[in-house]
Amino acid sequence: MGISELERSGAALETWSTQRPGVLIALEQLGLKPAQGFPKELLSPIQHPGSNAVYLMEYPLNENELILVQSLGPHQATSVHFHPEGVSEEFIPYEGTLLINGTPLTPLGRRVNLGEIHQATTRDNSALTIIVMQGIKGRTVSELHIRLDPVGSRAWLGKSAFDSEFGRIRDTLLLH
């Protein structure tokens, strides 16, 4: 029996209430504090379609960068997806071990290549991760993730969505 969205959000919020001060310090040390400062109130967790991840913080750093703090429970996964042309994503570990396409993040994190089809997962432990999305100008949050069929697209993990070979079958894997 799976964990409900409400239970997942509740557990993430409980962890977030103790982790938030440390995460804010880490964000500031990384130069990721917005000019207007961090939101003062604890925002409601956000979940994106097809993903088990709970986003505890999501704010624009500037007009071209979006900062997210992602919580992913044990044995959970995000959607298999890629980003529109020009959008990159950098994962910076805070706590726990996040895997991108089955490979654990190093302490320095990992940048997802432009157009790379990817999925974040966890194993036995949860992960709290800082994500920096660049190249977002003019796009809404919902336009930043192009979801794929999780079964049919697994063979494409780590490959480019802008590759001509993928282009021939792309429409069969897109989720709307």
Core attributes:
single chain, 176 residues, alpha+beta, Jelly Rolls, five-stranded antiparallel β-sheet, three-stranded antiparallel β-sheet, 20% helix, 27% strand
Instruction: Quote the beta fraction.
Output: 25-35%
Order of helices and strands: HEEEEEEEEEEH
Specify the overall morphology.
Answer: globular
Please tally the β strands and state the result: 10
Under the CATH scheme, the architecture is: Sandwich
Reported for the largest beta sheet, the result is: 5 strands, antiparallel
**Count of alpha/pi helices:** 2
CATH class: Mainly Beta
- Specify the CATH homologous superfamily: Jelly Rolls
Q: Taking all residues together, what is the mean pLDDT?
A: 88
What class would the helix/strand composition place it in? alpha+beta
- Distance separating the two termini: 26 Å
Amount of helix: 10-25%
Number of domains: 1
Poorly predicted regions:
none
Report strand order across the widest sheet: 1-2-9-4-7
How much is the radius of gyration in Å? 16 Å
The CATH topology label is Jelly Rolls
